[in-house]
Write a structure and sequence with these properties.
- It is built from 7 helices and 5 strands.
- The chain is an alpha+beta fold.
- Helices cover about 40% and strands about 15% of the residues.
- It is elongated and about 80 Å long.
Amino acid sequence: MRGEVLHYDEAQGFGFIHGADGNRYTFVAEDLRRQVPMEKGATVEFQPNGDKARAIFTIRAAAADDAPATPWQPGPTPMEPAATAPTAPPHLGRLAVADAGRPRSTGLWAYFRRGLTENYATFRGRARRKEYWGYFLFWTVAALAICFIGLIVDGAAGNLDSSDGPLLTMAALGLFVLATLLPGVAITVRRIHDMGLSGWFYLLVFVPYIGALIVFVFTLLPSQRQDNRWGSVPEGIRL
């Protein structure tokens, strides 16, 4: 498949490629078939493997290796115009359209809405602090609203005077927590990625006493102001 280099960090040995199919692929230095400079915007060929790019080589490097040797020819005389150098291959159209597109909203409500829709079970990528706390702010507001409405309904039904207690409120709140459990875990994993750490650190919440506190501290730390192996810098981060 053909693609275009979005970013390559030679020091850390990883980068991103925008494929001709519209998807983004990650790669590491070991995936390069030739150790040549991977500049941003370079056109490459690669073999997709899930969200990874394998066997990568630049089009320019491949053409240089495969081109037959040309015999020497005399240069142009002062009266002859010099030949025009070939232009570099054009950028992929999809990438240009994506870059020129209107940026998405970075408001708190927009983050909450996307967390329950397109990012419902998205563990890949990064989430900035504003996205994380915006999601849980509206999550808390929604939980309180469910409790308030549920208590009103339970009171009208006479459940508050019975020994069973507010059954409708507890049932509604339980369903809400179950429905939002997966996106809550996913956005926490992306928040950990945003600091350059592996999402497996989320498992610290199961460590008694201090595990949840450590993860809470992670969510308070600022974003890495550069691309890392889990994605590019989130929208809205001032570089």
